[in-house]
């Protein structure tokens, strides 16, 4: 998958659009969804270009948490279970959710995820 905001190579994703490109290691479980998702680029566009939410994505781990959170929502996996599966603190995923809600982006992003056919 090669588009404007994300590039996937084996188990690494490069995210563009927030300062210098951020290279993050992503869990094997979510790679197939990342490579097939037709809506992911649009979601990243919305979040990266949102004035206050983009500040929350300043480091690679927050971007990794965002991708894991979006995958969990797409597959209807409870947040805490998804965090356990990929060995990260559930608080990291809840922080993404709180940020989306605080910036009034939660419903917009959930609609986009529901529209994703992958």
Describe the structure.
Helices cover 51% and strands 10% of the residues. It has 118 residues and is mainly alpha-helical. A hairpin with a 2-residue loop joins strand 1 (6-9) and strand 2. Helix 3 packs across helix 5 (90-102) and helix 4 (79-85) packs across helix 5 (90-102). The relative contact order is 0.16. The model has no long low-confidence stretch (mean pLDDT 90).
Separate helix tally: 6
Radius of gyration: 13 Å
What coarse outline follows from CA principal-axis ratios? Answer: globular
Helix content: 40-55%
Distance between the termini: 13 Å
Question: What is the arithmetic mean of pLDDT?
Answer: 90
Q: Give the strand content.
A: 5-15%
Judged by helices, strands and strand pairing, the structural class is mainly alpha
Give a quick account of the main beta sheet: strands, pairing sense, barrel closure.
3 strands, antiparallel
Low-pLDDT windows of residues: none
* N-to-C SSE string, H for helix and E for strand: EEEHHHHHH
The total of beta strands comes to: 3
